[in-house]
Structures are given as C-alpha cells and as structure tokens.
Amino acid sequence: SLPPVLRFPCAVHQLLDPGRFSHLGTQAPQCPVAHLDNQVPTERTRAISRTLENDPAKHGEQHVGQHYNISIQELKTVFPHGLPPRFVMQVKTFNEACLMVRKPALELLHYLKNTNFAHPAVRYVLYGEKGTGKTLSLCHIIHFCAKQDWLILHIPDAHLWVKNCRDLLQSTYNKQRFDQPLEASIWLKNFKTANERFLSQIKVQDKYVWNKRESTEKGSPLAEVVEQGIMRVRNATDAVGIVLKELKRQSSLGVFRLLVAVDGVNALWGRTTLKREDKSPITPEELALIYNLRKMVKNDWQGGAIVLTVSQTGSLFKPRKAYLPQELLGKEGFDTLDPFIPILVSNYNPKEFEGCIQYYLENNWLQHEKAHTEEGKKELLFLSNRNPGLLERLCAYL
Amino acid sequence: MAAPSVSCGAAVPYRLFLAGRVSFAREQGLWKAAASGLQTGTRCQILRLKHSPAVTTTKNVAALRRESYTVDFIKKQIEEFNIGKRHLANMMGEDPETFTQEDVDASLSMGFSRQEYWNGLPCPPPGDLPDPRDRTQGSCIAGRFFTSGPAGEALTELIHVVFWRLLEKTAGPYVVHLRLGAVLPPGGEGHLETCRGDMCQEHRRAITYLFPSGLFEKRARPIMKHPEEIFPKQRAVQWGEDGRPFHFLFYTGKQSYYSLMHEAYGKVLHAEERQDQLRAKGLFSEKSKSKDLIGSRWLIKEELEEMLVEKLSDQDYAQFIRLLERLSALPCDAAEEEFVGRFRRTVTVQSKKHLIEPLQYDEQGMAFSTGQGKRKTANAEAVVYGHGSGKIEINGVDYLLYFPVTQDREQLMFPFHFLDRLGKHDVTCTVSGGGRSSQAGAIRLAMSRALCSFITEDEVEWMRQAGLLTTDPRVRERKKPGQEGARRKFTWKKR
C-alpha cells in the first residue's frame, strides 16, 4: 500500500530533517563524518577543496575551485580592514583564512602580471549579482599585490563614507567641502598598518601647514602626515587628501607600484544620505574624502593599477536587482570611469560548488547528517543556486 | 382548506407549494390592496406594498413543527412528477421511456423554447385563469405564460400573489406551487415543466424574476426531482384503528432498529449453527471473506438513520456494526451476503482521478508540459522541460533574484525534491498577483501539475497525498461590520 508522506514544513531547520520528509520512508539518522575512521576520503576531499599553493602569483587554471591558506599574520598586515564581516567571522571560527581561487580573480591576476607600468593605470571593474564574490576576489588581488610588494591603497567600502556620518565639519582647506574626521582617521590607521614599510621611504614633496603651530616640511616621510592625521582628528581628512595626492604623484615616478582598490565605487557618484544643518542634501563632491578619491580613480597617472568593485549591497537609492556597472554607476560615474575593463563575477560553477562544500565538510561546519549525501548537496545547490553568499548563509544554519 | 404541507429544511425546489395558512378574509383584503398597486406593474412598487403594517411578524409556532405529508399526497406528487417528466421529454424531443434524471436536470438548466411546445400540443387556448383564491385545487396557483397582452396582467398578478404569500409568512420556508402554462387538460392534473427560453420580453423578465438563474446558491435554483428525494421520509401511522400497534417491537421505541438487530442476530445464529454442522461433518473449510469487504465501507450513522427513519444513538450504531462484522466473519451463504451488502457502500480507492496531459514536444524535440496554479490571488503558469539543469526562470528573472527569501525557494524545491528530480528539469514560468508567499505557492502548484506528465501514476498518487496537487482553498476572510477584522472584535470596555 502507499508509503507514508508528511506535509512539507517551511522552516530551514526542518528541511533536511531525516525521516520527516523523505517519501522513501523514515530513515535512521546516520552518523556524522568521522575523520578518525577513514583517512582516505578526507585526503581525496582535501585534494578537491584545498591547494598547497599559497602564493597567489602561482595560481593557475588548475587551482580553480580550491582554497588556499593565508596565514594569520599576513592577514593582519595585508587586510586590517578589507575583509567582509562574515568572512572575518568564518576566519575566527575556523582559525584559518582560506580563500577560493576563482576564474575572475585569475583573469585579473593575469592582466596585472602583464601590466605595462609606463602606460596610464588601467581600470578594472568587478561587477556581478549580490553575493557572487566580488569583494573576496578583490581581496585575492590585494593579497597578490601585497606579496608582490605593491603599495596597497584599499578603501574597504566607499559606501561607508557617504552615509551614517555623525560629525561633518566644514573643511579647513576648502570652505565648500565637508570633512569626515572619524572615517578619515580610521582609514588612516588601517592604511598605516597595511603599508608600514613604505611610509618611511616615501618623502613628501610639499610643505603642508596644519595650523598655527604644526606643519610638515618638505622632504619629511609620509609617516608624519599619517601620524598627524591620526592624532589631530580634525585634520584627518586633509591628511588623507595629502596622502592620496603624494602617492599619485610619486607612483608615476616609478618608486613603487600603487594599487588603488575601492570596494563599492558606485558610492562616489551616487547620492548621499547626509544633510547639512539646514536639511539640504549634500552631493558627493562636497565631501572632501570623495573628492580626493575621485581624483585618485582617474587614470591620469602611471605605475600601478586601479581595481574597483561596484556593489548594490551598500548602495543608496539603487534598486535591488541592479548589478551592471551602467545601472549602478549612473551616467556621470560611467563617463568618468570609461574606459575600463569589466570583469563579471558569477555564481559558482559545479566544480567550485563542490569544492566549497568539501571545505565546509572538512572543517566540520556542516553538522547535518544529510549534508554529505548527494541529495543534501542537490538541495543546497537548488536552494542557493550556487550563489556563494547564499550558500554560506544557508550552511551557517546547518 | 386543504393544507398541503410546508417543507422544512428542504431546498426551495422548482415545484413550490403555497400553504394556506392565512385566513381568507385577510388574504382578500391584502389581495385588493395589492391589486390596486398592480397598475404600475413595477416590481419595487409591489414590494413596497408588501411591507404594509398589516403584515405581522409574529413567530408562527405551528409552522415550525415538522409537517407530515399524507401518503396520498406523496403518491399524487409522484404521479405529477412522472407526467411532467414525460411532457418535458416530449418537449425536448427525447424518448419519454428512457428519460433519466440527468436529462431532466440538463433540460432544466438549458431551457428550451416554449413556443415549440405550444405549437405542438393540442391545447385549449389559454383563456381562463383559475381563481388564485380558489383553494380547491389543492392550493395550487396556476400561472401561465402567454404571448398575449391580458395574460401579462395575469402573470404579474401571479407574481404578486406568490410574493405576497412568501413575504407574509416570515416563519419557515414556504413552498409555492406554480403551474406554468395553461395546464388544464380535462384531467385537471397539471403538467410540471419549467420554461425558460424564447418568449417575449416581459415574460422572459417574469421568468428570470421568478426563477432567477443568477442565484449563486445552487440550492435556491429551481429543481425538478423525484418526490422521494425532495420530501423527507416519514413514517406512516404505526397503529391501527383500535390503538394496537402493528409491529411487535413498537414499545421499544426504536422498532426498526431492534427488528433489524433481531434479524441480524438470527442470521448470525443460523450461520454459526451451519458452521457447527459443517465442522461436525468435517467439511469445514476456511474461506476468506476479505474480497467483498475491500473497496466498501459500512454505512455511517446518518445513512443508517435515514434508512430506518429513526433516530439512533452512537452506542446503538456501534452495536449494530459489531454485529454485522461478526456476521461477515462467519462463512455465509448468498442470502446473508446480500443482507450484509445492503449496509455497505463502495469507496473508490483512487478518489481523485484527474487528467494527465500528454507530453508536448517543441521544435527542438524537447519534451515539455504546462501547468497552472493558483493560491490566494496569485496565478501562475509553468512550463517544465524534460531535460535541463535545474534552472528556474520566473517572469524572465532567475528564481534566486525573484525570491530572495529562502522559504519561497523551498516551496519551489518541494515538488522536485519529492520526486527526486532536483537537477533534471528546466522551468519557465509566469506569475502575477498575490504576494511573495502566494506566488511561490501558485508556482509550486503549477509545477507539480506540469510534472504529472513526466511521472508514473503511482507517483502522481503520492504527490496528491502529499498535497502537492491540491489548490489551497484558504482565502482572505472578509472583515465583518461591528468587528475590527475578520475575527478580532473591538476592545471590550467595561464602561
């Protein structure tokens, strides 16, 4: 006679409950994967999901879908502020930082390896739907460049500079513009951590007077400017402006190679949610940080590369489904950034998906009994449609 | 005056009876008053006249009591019904002998041309309208539909009378009998037919007024059925002239039930005796009885009550069923099996048989199938392709973007996961209306229906049992006046 079938419950945690849903009858719960019992399968899964090649410069097509390790010290140096918060939590949980090698990042690495530093900086724009991995690809690139000893100018999220700012001061340098001391000082701190060794080498080429008592002489190291910005929060924005100007000027001389990495560059040309005291809205140009950053993103300097990401996640006043650069940058931004090389970041392909699942299984992240079965993987595939961000969120429940 | 009964609780059938409860004089008075208002002839005027203060709304206690029909009356109804059926058959052009109830219902709902009937039948010219006040015709009011002018008046009179009666008696449903057509062949017995159809404007209006087919309540529409089905079964008088009851178990109170139990127990004893005899002779053999018990069920209590025309208690019913089961467990002969069979009803195993469309093939030779689904106010149509990679596209957008909530995507996953075909089909669907959850439910239903073409019958049955193929009947309940929402009442304040 007919097998028993139950109504389908809606909550995720009941979804893959053994015995609740299968129409093949109730199943006995299976034991979770025990590493101690069988070493061979884990070796094999390691081969799928991990690679021992930890230098991004040597990553190639064969490493697609595999995770490589970044040591914690490197993480602290290279990424004081660059990683997405969920990834930081994952690093803390797993006690290791593993990034997946993916095709868009490999493509970019290839371009970067073949850049001609005599030409003006080329702009690369990473775009894609929400959760496909743009920010982490950017981090991969930054890691590569850090290993190659470039100077990294990384703005983790430009959207943070155009919204939720408590204190807006009128700029000391230019009366029309506004200062954001907090954001600028935080950024300066992180910048210092990331590029410690360069700051003493680069010399400032102008004299900057902060106020009646303080000034920076020509020829003093950039570290002083940064210190000044950190200590005197009121001048932080100006310090940032100076840093950007100097770096731009001096990278063209070929002393070092500069990587400008901005996440959420569409914030520079959108709208802000900040208002003046008389409640009139502020356009991005009126923010000193944004103004200087715009100058940075122009390709009128040589000796480096500009890697940008457009994202809808933090953007203001943009529809949820927009992911193309045209939609997110707007006409003004697109014209300014044109020409650029767009790189699409899409969902996982089957191999990458498999690698990701294996990685989670190895770290014992997926505790559900059905997680390592084929059906479980198919369910996860369907539910997340191979979207990395969604997959990560789904697996968090399991 | 003859008082044919008031039917209680029954649907307002097509054959309506007017109960002559009202006093003659009052009737006349109101009749005159009504007649004066007739000149205008408009409906609302008549109605307004009905609400005169003479109409009292006291509870008519007598009418509430269940009325009993006499045996003669029922017999007469049956004769009339049969004659009417024959006439209907004639009108429809069918053979009267084989005119079944379905045909009756079909012709009632379809309607037919009245003219055909009148042309065909040798009928006296409709001229005399029997007096509505004449009670001798078994309290039937004759009406007729004609094409002439004066008849129009008669018709409006008829309408008037009917509604006057109906409105006057507010307690209990009343049955108004209308004889339509000039139903006066020499016998005096009437034809019963309904006519809708091709008639002149005012008569058509009259018909739709009297028999409005726009009624949503199906039980309110005119019907023509065998009197057995309309009038509830009633028991004839149980005792004779001398007061002695006919049945020996009359004083138990539930004579039919106890006589049935007696009979059944007698059969049980008989069967056991036979079984003992067989055993003694050594010819006893085990016979399995299960085949007639599968696919049928015992009568439910209501059905048994209806059969015995008696009220039963739950314990009585349980006792009876136990006895019957005991009887059926014993080896029986044909008579006993027939006895048991009287109390069983068949049950279809596959209660839901819905059509499974065959697969269609598009230009590339790919098999596909369409399905439609609804949930609350969302309508969805899905096209499921035979071979694919598990891609689902909704209104041109990927399902991941269309349903950012995991719950909705789980709903979409359900049919495929159930059939274990997660990555094997491609779906393209369109959906409109409703909210996010109802759109997900509608698409799920549409996909399941489309998937039926790809799978075996057993799997269809499993899906049906899982609830994948049923439209969710829940809709938003309306808000009622005096309450804040559908169920929520206003805050109760003590003062």
Automatic annotation (TrEMBL), chain A:
The keyword Nucleotide-binding appears for this protein: no
tRNA-binding as UniProt keyword: no
Subcellular location: Mitochondrion
Keywords: Mitochondrion, Ribonucleoprotein, Ribosomal protein, Transit peptide
GO-annotated biological processes: apoptotic process
SUPFAM superfamilies given in the database record: P-loop containing nucleoside triphosphate hydrolases
InterPro entries: P-loop_NTPase (IPR027417), Ribosomal_mS29 (IPR019368), Ribosomal_mS29_met (IPR008092)
Main location: mitochondrion
GO cellular component: mitochondrial ribosome; small ribosomal subunit
Protein family (similarity comment): Belongs to the mitochondrion-specific ribosomal protein mS29 family.
The protein's name in its UniProt record: Small ribosomal subunit protein mS29
Gene that this sequence comes from: DAP3
Automatic annotation (TrEMBL), chain B:
Record keywords: Mitochondrion, Ribonucleoprotein, Ribosomal protein, Transit peptide
UniProt GO molecular function: structural constituent of ribosome
Native source organism of the sequence: Bos taurus
Keyword set includes Ion transport: no
Pfam families associated with the record: Ribosomal_S9
Region (Disordered): 473-495
Location(s), subcellular: Mitochondrion
A Gene Ontology cellular-component term: intracellular organelle lumen
PANTHER family membership: RIBOSOMAL PROTEIN S9, SMALL RIBOSOMAL SUBUNIT PROTEIN US9M
Main location: mitochondrion
Gene3D superfamilies associated with the record: 3.30.230.10
InterPro entries registered for this protein in UniProt: Ribosomal_Su5_D2-typ_SF, Ribosomal_uS9, Ribosomal_uS9_CS, Ribsml_uS5_D2-typ_fold_subgr
Single GO BP term: translation
Name of the protein in its database record: Small ribosomal subunit protein uS9m
Family affiliation: Belongs to the universal ribosomal protein uS9 family.
